[in-house]
TrEMBL record:
Catalysed reactions listed for this entry: (S)-lactate + NAD(+) = pyruvate + NADH + H(+)
EC numbers: 1.1.1.27
Protein name: L-lactate dehydrogenase
HAMAP family according to UniProt: Lactate_dehydrog
Group of enzyme by EC: oxidoreductase
Annotated signal sequence range: none
Length: 349
């Protein structure tokens, strides 16, 4: 696989670096302190490439690595991105089918996953994705033992658990994209309803990235104003069914996009890039992401990954936020955890 080469020109590899640039007097060798940020994206499908493109435009990495099982498509995607170099921050872009190219990655983003065959059961699809991860995760852990694994492949909560087990990493260095995008959709719908900027809305979807997810209505605020308590104090009536209908739209959003264009890509690209930014820039921002949830909010049925509001930084998951949940929300979160645990038991993991 062709790799990006610095300092050479033409197929013969004519090295022009020494001729083109001369060092200044008294120059010393570059510092050995590591300032080089390397991100590897595993899977060059629609989601993987949307993430790669967003990472490039946001200047998140000095080196971007693409890994996929299809060498022709991989080379095409690499060249297409390289040809945009004049319009992007300087980033070295490499692509290969060999996982050795991911050596020394600060962050490994896994988007690879098996597609469901018509008539195939969900359980069989899960088994195939677990088998795929057995070929993906161990090489990443081998070549980048200090990396943080960010799992995007679906079902993300189960596969994040699988990645944690296969990697042998501490739990803080294995994160799933979880409901970060679901929460963005949730914030958009609330902001659209109130005609405000979505960035002024704080609202979380937690639990499973799926049908059993939980909308934390009790903690929603707009511009720092708790919404439900404001409505109560103003004696403004609202129906619970209205709130549930908004949550259902969030759940159905991905299905709608897939039915219209065949797949989702741009929103998850921005969502994952935001997670990468928080981690690599040590922003310590709070994101609802899939983490080891045992011991939080009464989730104690076993080791399970599901989304909770977590603080992210250079060490991965720095902690889980102590958001107040109502009794009903707590029970729904436990039910969501049990849904995931049941699926894990079927896999025999």
């Amino acid at each position: 696989m062709h790799k990006s080469t610095s300092g050479s020109l033409g197929p013969s590899g004519l090295d022009l670096t020494q001729a083109f640039f001369k060092p200044i007097s008294g120059a010393a060798s570059p510092s050995s302190i590591k300032r080089h940020t390397k991100i590897s994206v595993i899977g060059a499908g629609n989601v993987g490439m949307a993430i790669a493109q967003t990472i490039l435009t946001q200047d998140l990495a000095d080196e971007l690595v693409l890994v996929d099982a299809k060498p022709e498509k991989l080379r095409g995607e690499m060249l297409d991105l390289q040809h945009a170099a004049a319009f992007l921050p300087r980033t070295k872009i490499i692509a290969d089918v060999d996982y050795a190219v991911t050596h020394g990655s600060d962050l490994c983003i896994v988007t690879a996953g098996a597609r469901q065959i018509p008539g195939e059961s969900r359980l069989n699809l899960l088994h195939r994705n677990v088998a795929l991860f057995r070929n993906v995760i161990p090489p990443l852990a081998k070549y980048s033992p200090d990396t943080i694994l960010l799992i995007v492949s679906n079902p993300v909560d189960i596969l994040t658990y699988v990645a944690w087990k296969l990697s042998g990493f501490p739990s803080n260095r294995v994160v799933g994209s979880g409901t970060n995008l679901d929460s963005s959709r949730f914030r958009f719908l609330i902001a659209d309803h109130l005609d405000v900027n979505a960035q002024d809305v704080q609202a979380y979807i937690v639990g499973e990235h799926g049908d059993s997810s939980v909308a934390l209505w009790s903690s929603i605020s707009v511009g720092g104003v708790p919404v439900l308590s404001f409505l109560d104090k103003q004696e403004i009536a609202y129906e619970k069914e209205t709130l549930e209908s908004i949550h259902k739209v969030v759940i159905d959003s991905a299905y709608e996009v897939i039915s219209l264009k065949g797949y989702t890509s741009w929103a998850i690209g921005y969502s994952v890039a935001a997670l990468a930014w928080s981690i690599l820039r040590d922003q310590r921002k709070i994101h609802p992401v899939s983490v080891l949830a045992k011991g939080f909010y009464g989730v104690d049925g076993g080791d399970v990954f599901l989304s909770l509001p977590a603080q992210l930084g250079r060490g991965g998951v720095l902690g889980v936020t102590n958001v107040h949940l109502t009794d009903e929300e707590t029970q729904r979160l436990r039910d969501s955890a049990n849904t995931i645990l049941e699926q894990l038991s079927q896999l025999g993991l």
